[in-house]
User: Fold these one by one.
Assistant:
Number 1:
Amino acid sequence: MSNINLQEILNSLSIEEKVGQLVQLAGVYYINQSEITGPLAKFDITDTHKFTAGSIIGVNNAKDAYAIQTEYLEKSRHKIPLLFMADVIHGSHTMYPIPLGMACSFNPELIEGMARNSAKEAAATGVQVTFSPMADLARDARWGRNMETNGEDPYLNKVLSSSYVKGYQGNTLSSKSELISCVKHFAGYGLVEAGREYNYVDISKRVLNEYHYPAYKSAIDSGAKMVMSAFNTIESIPATANEGLLKSDLREKLGFDGVVISDWAAVTELINHKLAADFKDAAKQCANAGVDIDMMSMAYLTELETLINNGEVDIKLIDEMVMNVLKLKKDYGLFEDPFKNLIDKSEQVVGNEELLINAKQVADESIVLLKNNENVLPLTSKYAIVGHHVTSRDYNGPWSWQGDISKNESIKEVFSANPNVTVIEEATKIIDIQDYEYIDTVVAFVGEKSNESGEAKSKTDIKLNSNEIELIKTLKMIGKKVITVVFAGRPLDIADIEMYSDAIVYAWFSGTKAAQSIYDILTGVVNPSAKLTMSFPRAVGQCPIYYNSYSTGRPLSKAIDTYVSKYIDQSNSPLYTFGDGLTYSDVKVTNVDLKESLSIGQDLTIKVELKNSSSMEAKEVIQVYINDLVASVIRPDNELKAFKKVNIAANTTTSYEITVNGNEFGFIGSDLEHRIEAGEFEIKVGLNMTDTINKIVRMEK
Ligand code: BGC
């Protein structure tokens, strides 16, 4: 049926059936239980609605999906198969680290492999479309959804968003075990004011184009077939009703020709935004703005037919929207095989060896070693483990609907296989530690619970809880060496425990293999290699804080300390910055060699010499930042423009080549066009942002 004629199918549909293709219903209307990720509209769904709707969200179980599709094909007149969509964000059943953690791997191939594997697992359990990747840039630790992002850097975000899409969709999308990728949330969702979820966003078009669009664009260029519009506003119009955003920018400028879906119930949220008077008004505005599918608001379902009949929404527009959906179904091969990925293969695939090995590799590269005074890590002597995460198994993080935490090995189980370990389960027993004279080191497993980050989990207090701070402080006070392992879905304010911790390991929520990865890192079986992708504030009052902020007219400097841009009660700098992260090896950049002049558009190839003076092989991330010294719009002092994760053997000196693409020297000008200007650029090469070798490159006209 690959010569299927979509125009004929479209022509054969009644208006009600056309509208149906533009409606997405939750699985719960068909089966008893499905994932509910937003408010359920109070609306009686009839059989006619059920058997004309075009797609379903949140089923995530092949047997149910198969049964729904079978009944649908029997009962619908047109027999156009349903598409089954779900949130496969950091794994399906086998959980990987949260995306913010995975981004810390700085390893695009690893992330592509992860997406490939989680697509295989999800495809074996009835999922056809995933609402991933999230290409929103994150800058404010108060926002709960940082966990789902690639962090604060536009370049890294751009590279990794593409890896997700390539991994999920493969090259052709035609084979089994691939998922359609829906990139979200267009656009600027990461900038919700004050870090409060679903809040107002105000941003200039220039900055939106410069910092935010590139990751959506690279996902689209990598083939993402769907885009989800965001909950937030852009220039005072909610993204879901924003024609300029969805048509001029997304379709024309970024070249997207797939399906635009609203976020959950965002269409009728126009009423709360006071942009629409009622469902009808909301449906009209969103359809006209370019939202093809209404996810779970019921406005298209109830109002679109009337709007078409009375000429308020042009049938030609509806035909285009329906055609987008039909084309997606065709590209996915649904007309040839309506049961693609709906045959239950969970027994063979879910949690298989390949997935577990991969989840462990990804966790190994996502956990960040932030501090390691006097090489207290890796652990060698006897030690005790304390803290609520010792037994919690709560390591999967948000968006792990199918990730069963009872299948996770706990920290206690993994660590207590080692005779050197004493397990102290209750934090209140810390004082007993004094009795354990032979223990000089204590590892405290502290931090958030999974349900403290993710959607709708904004916070104003991002410290550890007071018991945990007290625990760590007391341990230090009684003379122990303290290793703090933090679980979290966001950068927490860890200033209170930083001074009492000899070492800090940031474990994020690292998924199914978290306990084993943490064990291997703490004991030196795995040399940590992850680098932060979001800056850590010293105090919540610094939020939003990110490394690539623009310069000010009165920057803080050593020479001038008054009437400058600073806090009077806190330093400007973060506690840990983007790119920070230690290994157990001693690797340094010893030489940087590059051409000192370039012509506009030309790539810059840099030779970087690394020396590993330690006896441990390491994975390191070469980071290249640029500083455009004079430009027609303000520029940050540091912008990541290339990175490369490399292996360096013990006790060796090795040279690597890394290339900055010529276009990366450009920026978005005040005319909203990309431009590269002649002049001087400072190029900074290092294994973090603070310790770099800097050179000047002249860009010639
Ligand atoms: C979230 C989306 C998600 C959707 C479907 C929304 O509430 O913002 O990211 O994909 O629900 O579950």
Number 2:
Amino acid sequence: MDTSRRSFLRSLAAAPLLAPATSCGPKSSSLSPVAPSPTPPSTALPLGQLAQAAGYLYGAAVDVTGIGDAGFAAAVGTECGLITAENSLKWAALRPAADRFDFTRGDMLLNFARARGLAFRGHTLVWHSSLPSWFSSTVNAGNAEQFLVEHITTVVRHYAGSMHSWDVVNEAVDPASGRADGLRNTPWLQMLGPRYLDLAFTTAAAADPDALLCYNEYGLELGSSAAKRDATLRLLSDLRGRGMPVHALGIQGHAGGSGWPQFDAGGFAAFLRDVGRLGLRILISELDVKDNNLPAAVSARDQAVAAIYRDYLAVALADPAVIAVITWGLSDKYTWIATSAPRTDGLAVRPLPLDASFARKPAWDAIAAAFDRKTSRAVRSAVSDRHVLNPATSGPGRPISARPSGGQSDRPAVLRNRDAPKADRPFRGRYR
Ligand code: XIL
């Protein structure tokens, strides 16, 4: 980030009681002169900057079709601090044949990110889905280890030094598979047993010692998710306990839909706390809101979607282990929800922060307000801390950070330096 932008954000963080820098979303300051507007003015700061001022990363999943659309590309460049490769780094995209790698699409995304100073996130090295058609007839118990290690080594090395983080393993937990360890019965598990998880993380760490290595999972937020939360926690605790290089949990966060009334804020918050206690960071890695059971009228539907974002982020951002919020797409023009959870009335789905014309929606306001509330809180406590802290570390001109040691500051002291995840080492990237 250039110095002028950084000092601007610093002054923004240092001046919470002046006129709000953005008029989007509800303000916690009682001095806010006007009620929040549903459509923020175009001068409102983008989500990436609001996130950064609060000590988070904001980003979105994108694919090559999207970045070829000038309007979408501009919106991503404006709003995001990071992009995730939505499909371009999955096996099906990278492996046209058993003996060939095709990095064309992944490299297009990396170049797009680089040209705009965005961090780049890899998704995903090991998953039971999005496998190429040759996979099942070619990979077997005899050669699976060789395929896994070769794939991870080749792909992670290709992007080494450029990757913010990798989803090393995706969706490995599934209590419904009926195993005592809660693992999903995937081809990798069948061919290699549970050791495929160790193999994946150690191989990724050897190929890029600087990337944040994540385990990514879905379906952790509802009352009915308790067994999955327990199994996920047991898996992470086991991996960490045996010194495996897993640094973060990615929580997909595909919210909304018919099950959402069972959102279990308390159970989810306790889960985040337990994950943090393992020394892991947390990324909300694929947030979007299914609107297939919400009213047809656009304004009512947009408000309902925004309320789900608000409730979700109220829990997520309250936990100090959470470092990033990534939506699964940015605009309703490009969203997997259109096919994975379409509406029965045939209306276009509206799950993301921007509409199909790239205009900000109430969902955008809800995300902005969630970051904004964190900034206000952090700044208020930093300002009051000046009375009790050493002025050398808290005086004017010092950057005020919402999370000075990478989000660990609210943790019990015993967890701060012991088993510090690799994320505690200085990151090289712009937003790390
Ligand atoms: C989805 C993509 O968004 C779709 O375009 C693709 O057809 C299928 O995969 N969890 C994940 C993501 O980890 O990889 C999935 O992405 C969405 C659910």
